[in-house]
TrEMBL record:
Assigned protein family: Belongs to the MurCDEF family.
Pathway: Cell wall biogenesis; peptidoglycan biosynthesis
Cellular compartments annotated: Cytoplasm
Pfam families xrefs: Mur_ligase_C, Mur_ligase_M, MurD-like_N
Protein name (database record): UDP-N-acetylmuramoylalanine--D-glutamate ligase
Organism of provenance: Alkalibacillus flavidus
Amino acid sequence: MKTLTNFPYQHVLVLGLAKSGQAAAQLLHDSDVSFVINDNKAFEENETAQHFHNLGVETVTGGHPLSVLDGVDLVVKNPGIPHHHVIIAEAELRGIPVVTEVELAYLLIDGPLVAITGTNGKTTTTTLIHQLLDEAGLNPLLAGNIGEVASNVVRQQTSGQPVVMELSSFQLKAIHQFKPDIAVLLNITEAHLDYHQTRADYVRSKLRMLERQTDDDVVVYNSDDDTIVSHLDKAKAQQVGFSVKRRLDHGVSNDGQHLFVEGDSLMAREDVAIPGDHNLENVLAAVAVVRQFGVSFDVIRRVLTTFVGVKHRLQFVKNVSDRLFYNDSKATNILATSKAIQSFTRPVILIAGGLDRGVEFDSLIDQFTNVKHCVAFGESADKIVEAAQRHQFDAVTTYENLQEATEAAYQYSEPGDVVLLSPACASWDQFDSFEDRGHIFIDVMHKL
Protein backbone atom coordinates (compact mmCIF):
# COMPACT_ATOMS: atom_id res chain seq x y z
CA MET A 1 0.00 0.00 0.00
CA LYS A 2 1.13 3.54 -0.69
CA THR A 3 2.69 5.67 2.04
CA LEU A 4 3.63 9.33 2.25
CA THR A 5 7.03 10.21 0.82
CA ASN A 6 8.89 13.52 1.09
CA PHE A 7 6.27 14.61 3.61
CA PRO A 8 7.14 18.21 4.60
CA TYR A 9 5.88 18.10 8.21
CA GLN A 10 7.82 16.84 11.22
CA HIS A 11 5.19 16.37 13.94
CA VAL A 12 1.43 16.15 13.29
CA LEU A 13 -1.64 16.37 15.50
CA VAL A 14 -4.56 14.13 14.51
CA LEU A 15 -7.63 15.73 16.07
CA GLY A 16 -10.63 13.42 16.34
CA LEU A 17 -10.70 9.65 15.82
CA ALA A 18 -13.76 9.15 13.66
CA LYS A 19 -13.26 7.21 10.41
CA SER A 20 -11.17 9.89 8.72
CA GLY A 21 -9.02 10.45 11.81
CA GLN A 22 -8.36 6.75 12.15
CA ALA A 23 -7.37 6.52 8.48
CA ALA A 24 -5.10 9.56 8.76
CA ALA A 25 -3.44 8.14 11.86
CA GLN A 26 -2.84 4.78 10.19
CA LEU A 27 -1.34 6.46 7.11
CA LEU A 28 0.97 8.63 9.23
CA HIS A 29 2.04 5.61 11.28
CA ASP A 30 2.75 3.50 8.20
CA SER A 31 4.69 6.42 6.71
CA ASP A 32 6.89 6.75 9.83
CA VAL A 33 5.67 10.31 10.47
CA SER A 34 5.76 11.50 14.09
CA PHE A 35 2.27 12.37 15.36
CA VAL A 36 0.06 12.67 18.43
CA ILE A 37 -3.63 11.79 18.70
CA ASN A 38 -6.19 13.90 20.57
CA ASP A 39 -9.77 12.64 20.99
CA ASN A 40 -12.52 13.67 23.36
CA LYS A 41 -13.66 10.13 24.23
CA ALA A 42 -12.13 8.72 27.41
CA PHE A 43 -9.28 6.27 26.87
CA GLU A 44 -11.07 3.41 28.66
CA GLU A 45 -13.94 3.60 26.14
CA ASN A 46 -11.80 4.44 23.13
CA GLU A 47 -10.75 1.29 21.26
CA THR A 48 -9.13 3.25 18.43
CA ALA A 49 -7.00 5.29 20.82
CA GLN A 50 -6.02 2.10 22.63
CA HIS A 51 -4.99 0.53 19.31
CA PHE A 52 -2.63 3.39 18.43
CA HIS A 53 -1.35 3.64 21.98
CA ASN A 54 -0.33 -0.02 21.72
CA LEU A 55 1.54 0.87 18.53
CA GLY A 56 3.56 3.42 20.49
CA VAL A 57 1.64 6.53 19.40
CA GLU A 58 1.15 9.30 21.96
CA THR A 59 -2.57 9.59 22.69
CA VAL A 60 -4.33 12.34 24.66
CA THR A 61 -7.98 11.54 25.35
CA GLY A 62 -10.90 12.75 27.45
CA GLY A 63 -10.39 16.45 26.64
CA HIS A 64 -8.51 18.96 24.52
CA PRO A 65 -5.58 20.56 26.38
CA LEU A 66 -3.76 23.19 24.35
CA SER A 67 -0.49 21.42 25.12
CA VAL A 68 -1.26 18.88 22.37
CA LEU A 69 -0.21 21.62 19.92
CA ASP A 70 3.29 21.97 21.39
CA GLY A 71 5.88 21.10 18.75
CA VAL A 72 3.20 20.43 16.12
CA ASP A 73 3.59 21.82 12.58
CA LEU A 74 0.36 20.40 11.05
CA VAL A 75 -3.13 19.59 12.35
CA VAL A 76 -5.25 16.96 10.59
CA LYS A 77 -8.75 17.39 11.95
CA ASN A 78 -11.97 15.42 11.69
CA PRO A 79 -14.18 17.30 9.15
CA GLY A 80 -17.03 17.62 11.64
CA ILE A 81 -14.95 19.58 14.15
CA PRO A 82 -15.77 23.28 13.58
CA HIS A 83 -13.05 25.86 13.13
CA HIS A 84 -14.09 27.71 16.27
CA HIS A 85 -13.09 24.63 18.30
CA VAL A 86 -10.53 25.59 20.95
CA ILE A 87 -7.71 23.54 19.41
CA ILE A 88 -8.35 24.76 15.85
CA ALA A 89 -8.62 28.38 16.95
CA GLU A 90 -5.36 28.10 18.90
CA ALA A 91 -3.60 26.37 15.99
CA GLU A 92 -4.58 29.21 13.69
CA LEU A 93 -3.29 31.73 16.23
CA ARG A 94 0.03 29.90 16.30
CA GLY A 95 0.19 29.80 12.49
CA ILE A 96 -0.10 26.01 12.32
CA PRO A 97 -1.84 24.86 9.13
CA VAL A 98 -5.06 22.89 9.60
CA VAL A 99 -6.20 20.33 7.03
CA THR A 100 -8.68 17.49 6.70
CA GLU A 101 -7.73 13.93 5.79
CA VAL A 102 -8.44 14.45 2.07
CA GLU A 103 -5.35 16.67 1.93
CA LEU A 104 -3.21 13.66 2.89
CA ALA A 105 -5.04 11.52 0.34
CA TYR A 106 -4.30 14.07 -2.37
CA LEU A 107 -0.57 13.67 -1.80
CA LEU A 108 -0.89 9.99 -2.78
CA ILE A 109 -3.03 10.31 -5.91
CA ASP A 110 -1.40 9.29 -9.18
CA GLY A 111 -4.07 9.68 -11.84
CA PRO A 112 -7.08 11.80 -12.76
CA LEU A 113 -9.09 13.13 -9.80
CA VAL A 114 -12.77 14.05 -10.12
CA ALA A 115 -14.09 15.97 -7.08
CA ILE A 116 -17.82 16.56 -6.61
CA THR A 117 -19.45 19.01 -4.23
CA GLY A 118 -22.74 20.84 -3.82
CA THR A 119 -25.46 21.33 -1.26
CA ASN A 120 -27.56 18.51 -2.71
CA GLY A 121 -27.04 15.61 -5.08
CA LYS A 122 -23.39 14.84 -4.31
CA THR A 123 -23.80 11.16 -3.54
CA THR A 124 -26.06 10.42 -6.50
CA THR A 125 -23.76 12.25 -8.91
CA THR A 126 -20.61 10.67 -7.50
CA THR A 127 -22.12 7.20 -7.70
CA LEU A 128 -23.33 7.75 -11.25
CA ILE A 129 -19.96 9.08 -12.45
CA HIS A 130 -18.27 6.06 -10.91
CA GLN A 131 -20.74 3.67 -12.56
CA LEU A 132 -20.37 5.33 -15.98
CA LEU A 133 -16.57 5.23 -15.84
CA ASP A 134 -16.68 1.63 -14.65
CA GLU A 135 -19.03 0.64 -17.46
CA ALA A 136 -16.55 2.24 -19.87
CA GLY A 137 -13.79 -0.02 -18.51
CA LEU A 138 -11.76 2.66 -16.72
CA ASN A 139 -11.82 0.89 -13.33
CA PRO A 140 -12.38 4.04 -11.20
CA LEU A 141 -12.05 4.27 -7.42
CA LEU A 142 -14.84 5.71 -5.26
CA ALA A 143 -13.84 7.83 -2.26
CA GLY A 144 -14.60 10.68 0.13
CA ASN A 145 -17.75 11.80 1.86
CA ILE A 146 -19.69 8.98 0.23
CA GLY A 147 -18.47 6.69 3.00
CA GLU A 148 -15.11 5.52 1.69
CA VAL A 149 -12.31 7.36 3.49
CA ALA A 150 -10.17 8.88 0.75
CA SER A 151 -6.74 8.14 2.18
CA ASN A 152 -7.70 4.48 2.63
CA VAL A 153 -8.93 4.20 -0.96
CA VAL A 154 -6.09 5.96 -2.76
CA ARG A 155 -3.44 3.93 -0.94
CA GLN A 156 -4.57 1.10 -3.22
CA GLN A 157 -4.63 3.15 -6.43
CA THR A 158 -2.63 1.97 -9.42
CA SER A 159 -0.95 4.55 -11.65
CA GLY A 160 -3.46 6.35 -13.88
CA GLN A 161 -6.54 4.90 -12.19
CA PRO A 162 -9.29 7.56 -11.93
CA VAL A 163 -10.48 8.61 -8.46
CA VAL A 164 -14.06 9.89 -8.05
CA MET A 165 -14.37 11.76 -4.74
CA GLU A 166 -17.41 13.27 -3.03
CA LEU A 167 -16.51 16.26 -0.85
CA SER A 168 -18.40 18.23 1.76
CA SER A 169 -17.91 21.86 2.71
CA PHE A 170 -16.47 20.58 6.01
CA GLN A 171 -13.68 18.81 4.14
CA LEU A 172 -13.08 21.58 1.63
CA LYS A 173 -12.81 24.35 4.20
CA ALA A 174 -9.49 22.89 5.33
CA ILE A 175 -7.53 22.12 2.15
CA HIS A 176 -4.28 23.70 1.00
CA GLN A 177 -2.65 21.82 -1.90
CA PHE A 178 -5.69 19.78 -2.95
CA LYS A 179 -6.57 20.27 -6.63
CA PRO A 180 -8.92 18.14 -8.76
CA ASP A 181 -8.41 17.62 -12.47
CA ILE A 182 -12.18 17.89 -12.84
CA ALA A 183 -14.15 19.86 -10.24
CA VAL A 184 -17.94 19.53 -10.16
CA LEU A 185 -20.18 22.22 -8.63
CA LEU A 186 -23.76 20.95 -8.49
CA ASN A 187 -25.54 23.71 -6.58
CA ILE A 188 -25.02 26.01 -3.63
CA THR A 189 -27.84 26.98 -1.29
CA GLU A 190 -27.92 27.89 2.38
CA ALA A 191 -26.87 24.98 4.60
CA HIS A 192 -24.72 24.03 7.59
CA LEU A 193 -24.81 27.52 9.07
CA ASP A 194 -24.40 26.03 12.55
CA TYR A 195 -20.92 24.94 11.37
CA HIS A 196 -19.92 27.73 9.00
CA GLN A 197 -21.77 30.48 10.89
CA THR A 198 -22.18 32.59 7.73
CA ARG A 199 -23.41 31.82 4.24
CA ALA A 200 -20.33 33.52 2.81
CA ASP A 201 -18.05 31.08 4.60
CA TYR A 202 -20.11 28.12 3.36
CA VAL A 203 -19.93 29.35 -0.25
CA ARG A 204 -16.22 30.12 0.06
CA SER A 205 -15.56 26.61 1.37
CA LYS A 206 -17.36 24.99 -1.56
CA LEU A 207 -15.39 27.06 -4.06
CA ARG A 208 -11.98 26.33 -2.53
CA MET A 209 -11.36 23.37 -4.78
CA LEU A 210 -11.22 25.73 -7.77
CA GLU A 211 -8.47 27.91 -6.31
CA ARG A 212 -5.48 25.85 -7.44
CA GLN A 213 -6.87 24.65 -10.75
CA THR A 214 -5.10 25.70 -13.95
CA ASP A 215 -6.20 26.00 -17.55
CA ASP A 216 -5.33 22.29 -17.96
CA ASP A 217 -8.16 21.43 -15.56
CA VAL A 218 -11.95 21.48 -15.93
CA VAL A 219 -14.80 22.79 -13.80
CA VAL A 220 -18.23 21.30 -14.52
CA TYR A 221 -20.84 23.68 -13.15
CA ASN A 222 -24.58 24.25 -12.89
CA SER A 223 -25.29 27.14 -15.23
CA ASP A 224 -28.74 27.56 -13.63
CA ASP A 225 -27.22 28.35 -10.23
CA ASP A 226 -26.66 32.10 -9.88
CA THR A 227 -24.33 31.74 -6.88
CA ILE A 228 -22.00 29.42 -8.76
CA VAL A 229 -22.08 31.44 -11.98
CA SER A 230 -21.31 34.67 -10.13
CA HIS A 231 -18.04 33.22 -8.78
CA LEU A 232 -16.69 31.64 -11.95
CA ASP A 233 -14.97 34.78 -13.19
CA LYS A 234 -11.99 33.90 -10.99
CA ALA A 235 -11.79 30.28 -12.13
CA LYS A 236 -8.75 29.45 -14.26
CA ALA A 237 -10.00 26.03 -15.37
CA GLN A 238 -11.90 25.28 -18.57
CA GLN A 239 -15.62 25.70 -17.90
CA VAL A 240 -18.25 23.15 -18.92
CA GLY A 241 -21.82 24.06 -18.00
CA PHE A 242 -24.96 21.97 -17.61
CA SER A 243 -28.57 23.11 -17.53
CA VAL A 244 -31.93 21.45 -16.87
CA LYS A 245 -33.81 24.58 -17.92
CA ARG A 246 -32.57 25.34 -21.41
CA ARG A 247 -30.68 23.87 -24.32
CA LEU A 248 -27.00 24.86 -24.45
CA ASP A 249 -24.80 25.03 -27.54
CA HIS A 250 -21.91 23.90 -25.38
CA GLY A 251 -21.97 21.60 -22.37
CA VAL A 252 -24.80 19.23 -21.41
CA SER A 253 -28.45 20.24 -21.28
CA ASN A 254 -32.11 19.35 -21.48
CA ASP A 255 -34.95 20.94 -23.42
CA GLY A 256 -37.71 19.01 -21.64
CA GLN A 257 -37.80 16.27 -24.28
CA HIS A 258 -34.20 15.32 -24.95
CA LEU A 259 -30.73 15.45 -23.38
CA PHE A 260 -28.03 17.16 -25.43
CA VAL A 261 -24.24 17.01 -25.36
CA GLU A 262 -22.51 19.86 -27.18
CA GLY A 263 -25.73 20.40 -29.14
CA ASP A 264 -26.05 16.74 -30.20
CA SER A 265 -29.03 14.69 -29.01
CA LEU A 266 -28.01 12.04 -26.48
CA MET A 267 -31.32 10.41 -25.55
CA ALA A 268 -34.96 11.06 -24.73
CA ARG A 269 -35.65 12.55 -21.31
CA GLU A 270 -38.29 9.88 -20.62
CA ASP A 271 -35.68 7.12 -21.01
CA VAL A 272 -33.67 8.35 -17.99
CA ALA A 273 -34.54 5.86 -15.25
CA ILE A 274 -33.88 7.91 -12.13
CA PRO A 275 -36.95 9.93 -11.05
CA GLY A 276 -37.25 13.65 -10.36
CA ASP A 277 -36.16 16.84 -12.08
CA HIS A 278 -33.59 17.47 -9.35
CA ASN A 279 -31.93 14.17 -10.26
CA LEU A 280 -31.69 15.37 -13.85
CA GLU A 281 -29.14 17.94 -12.62
CA ASN A 282 -27.07 15.07 -11.26
CA VAL A 283 -27.40 13.15 -14.51
CA LEU A 284 -26.30 16.08 -16.67
CA ALA A 285 -23.33 16.81 -14.41
CA ALA A 286 -22.23 13.18 -14.55
CA VAL A 287 -22.51 13.09 -18.34
CA ALA A 288 -20.43 16.28 -18.61
CA VAL A 289 -17.71 14.67 -16.49
CA VAL A 290 -17.48 11.34 -18.26
CA ARG A 291 -17.40 12.98 -21.67
CA GLN A 292 -14.09 14.47 -20.54
CA PHE A 293 -12.87 10.86 -20.44
CA GLY A 294 -14.29 10.11 -23.87
CA VAL A 295 -17.05 7.81 -22.64
CA SER A 296 -19.30 6.98 -25.60
CA PHE A 297 -22.96 7.87 -26.03
CA ASP A 298 -23.80 4.14 -26.15
CA VAL A 299 -22.28 3.52 -22.72
CA ILE A 300 -23.97 6.60 -21.26
CA ARG A 301 -27.38 5.56 -22.62
CA ARG A 302 -26.97 2.02 -21.30
CA VAL A 303 -26.26 3.24 -17.78
CA LEU A 304 -28.85 6.03 -17.66
CA THR A 305 -31.67 3.69 -18.66
CA THR A 306 -30.91 1.40 -15.70
CA PHE A 307 -29.51 3.64 -12.93
CA VAL A 308 -32.26 4.31 -10.38
CA GLY A 309 -30.29 6.09 -7.64
CA VAL A 310 -28.57 5.26 -4.37
CA LYS A 311 -29.65 4.10 -0.95
CA HIS A 312 -31.21 6.76 1.27
CA ARG A 313 -31.63 9.19 -1.64
CA LEU A 314 -35.21 8.98 -2.93
CA GLN A 315 -34.82 5.19 -2.74
CA PHE A 316 -37.94 3.20 -3.57
CA VAL A 317 -38.24 0.58 -0.86
CA LYS A 318 -41.50 -1.32 -1.15
CA ASN A 319 -45.17 -1.30 -2.03
CA VAL A 320 -47.15 -1.96 1.15
CA SER A 321 -50.90 -2.34 0.60
CA ASP A 322 -50.65 -0.07 -2.47
CA ARG A 323 -48.69 2.59 -0.57
CA LEU A 324 -45.30 3.39 -2.12
CA PHE A 325 -42.59 3.79 0.52
CA TYR A 326 -39.56 5.95 -0.32
CA ASN A 327 -36.45 6.40 1.81
CA ASP A 328 -34.89 9.85 1.33
CA SER A 329 -33.03 9.94 4.64
CA LYS A 330 -30.09 11.74 3.01
CA ALA A 331 -32.30 14.82 2.55
CA THR A 332 -30.77 16.77 5.43
CA ASN A 333 -31.94 20.24 4.41
CA ILE A 334 -35.11 21.97 3.26
CA LEU A 335 -34.14 22.24 -0.40
CA ALA A 336 -33.47 18.50 -0.70
CA THR A 337 -36.85 17.66 0.83
CA SER A 338 -38.63 20.24 -1.33
CA LYS A 339 -37.17 18.63 -4.45
CA ALA A 340 -38.14 15.17 -3.24
CA ILE A 341 -41.75 16.26 -2.75
CA GLN A 342 -41.80 17.81 -6.21
CA SER A 343 -40.74 14.46 -7.71
CA PHE A 344 -44.21 13.00 -7.10
CA THR A 345 -47.63 13.67 -8.58
CA ARG A 346 -49.30 11.24 -6.17
CA PRO A 347 -50.44 12.43 -2.73
CA VAL A 348 -47.57 12.35 -0.23
CA ILE A 349 -47.47 11.52 3.47
CA LEU A 350 -44.25 13.26 4.51
CA ILE A 351 -42.15 12.13 7.47
CA ALA A 352 -39.81 14.99 8.44
CA GLY A 353 -37.76 16.23 11.37
CA GLY A 354 -34.48 15.76 13.16
CA LEU A 355 -31.67 17.89 14.53
CA ASP A 356 -32.72 21.47 15.26
CA ARG A 357 -30.15 23.69 13.53
CA GLY A 358 -32.05 26.90 14.10
CA VAL A 359 -33.71 27.05 10.68
CA GLU A 360 -37.36 27.85 10.04
CA PHE A 361 -39.47 25.60 7.82
CA ASP A 362 -41.75 28.10 6.06
CA SER A 363 -40.11 27.53 2.67
CA LEU A 364 -40.73 23.80 3.06
CA ILE A 365 -44.43 24.24 3.84
CA ASP A 366 -44.67 26.35 0.65
CA GLN A 367 -43.95 23.15 -1.31
CA PHE A 368 -46.78 21.15 0.27
CA THR A 369 -49.07 21.32 -2.79
CA ASN A 370 -49.35 17.51 -2.91
CA VAL A 371 -48.58 16.75 0.76
CA LYS A 372 -51.80 15.55 2.40
CA HIS A 373 -50.25 15.00 5.83
CA CYS A 374 -46.91 15.75 7.49
CA VAL A 375 -45.69 13.55 10.34
CA ALA A 376 -42.98 15.40 12.29
CA PHE A 377 -40.54 13.89 14.78
CA GLY A 378 -37.33 14.69 16.62
CA GLU A 379 -35.91 17.97 17.92
CA SER A 380 -37.36 20.11 15.14
CA ALA A 381 -40.91 18.68 15.21
CA ASP A 382 -42.44 21.65 17.04
CA LYS A 383 -40.81 24.11 14.61
CA ILE A 384 -42.36 22.26 11.67
CA VAL A 385 -45.77 22.49 13.34
CA GLU A 386 -45.32 26.22 14.00
CA ALA A 387 -44.40 26.85 10.36
CA ALA A 388 -47.37 24.80 9.19
CA GLN A 389 -49.71 26.83 11.40
CA ARG A 390 -48.36 30.08 9.95
CA HIS A 391 -49.32 28.77 6.50
CA GLN A 392 -52.71 27.39 7.58
CA PHE A 393 -51.60 23.81 6.94
CA ASP A 394 -53.44 21.82 9.62
CA ALA A 395 -52.62 18.24 8.62
CA VAL A 396 -49.49 17.89 10.73
CA THR A 397 -48.87 15.76 13.80
CA THR A 398 -45.81 15.16 15.96
CA TYR A 399 -44.26 12.00 17.34
CA GLU A 400 -41.31 11.36 19.61
CA ASN A 401 -39.30 9.10 17.32
CA LEU A 402 -39.07 7.71 13.80
CA GLN A 403 -40.66 4.37 14.62
CA GLU A 404 -43.83 6.03 15.90
CA ALA A 405 -43.78 8.51 12.99
CA THR A 406 -43.50 5.74 10.38
CA GLU A 407 -46.33 3.72 11.91
CA ALA A 408 -48.49 6.87 12.04
CA ALA A 409 -47.67 7.79 8.43
CA TYR A 410 -48.98 4.42 7.32
CA GLN A 411 -52.20 4.99 9.26
CA TYR A 412 -52.66 8.43 7.67
CA SER A 413 -52.07 7.05 4.17
CA GLU A 414 -54.52 5.57 1.70
CA PRO A 415 -54.02 3.25 -1.28
CA GLY A 416 -52.19 5.13 -4.04
CA ASP A 417 -50.28 7.42 -1.67
CA VAL A 418 -46.52 7.87 -1.31
CA VAL A 419 -45.10 7.53 2.20
CA LEU A 420 -41.90 9.58 2.05
CA LEU A 421 -39.17 9.82 4.66
CA SER A 422 -37.43 13.07 3.68
CA PRO A 423 -36.44 14.70 6.97
CA ALA A 424 -35.10 18.15 5.88
CA CYS A 425 -32.86 17.88 8.95
CA ALA A 426 -29.63 16.24 10.01
CA SER A 427 -29.95 12.97 11.90
CA TRP A 428 -27.74 13.53 14.93
CA ASP A 429 -30.46 14.26 17.47
CA GLN A 430 -31.46 10.57 17.56
CA PHE A 431 -29.17 8.67 15.17
CA ASP A 432 -25.50 8.10 14.42
CA SER A 433 -25.97 8.97 10.75
CA PHE A 434 -28.54 9.47 8.01
CA GLU A 435 -27.83 5.86 6.96
CA ASP A 436 -28.81 4.66 10.44
CA ARG A 437 -32.01 6.70 10.20
CA GLY A 438 -32.85 5.24 6.79
CA HIS A 439 -32.25 1.66 7.92
CA ILE A 440 -34.56 2.11 10.90
CA PHE A 441 -37.28 3.53 8.64
CA ILE A 442 -36.97 0.49 6.36
CA ASP A 443 -37.00 -1.93 9.31
CA VAL A 444 -40.19 -0.38 10.71
CA MET A 445 -41.80 -0.39 7.27
CA HIS A 446 -41.14 -4.13 6.82
CA LYS A 447 -42.90 -4.81 10.15
CA LEU A 448 -46.08 -2.94 9.24
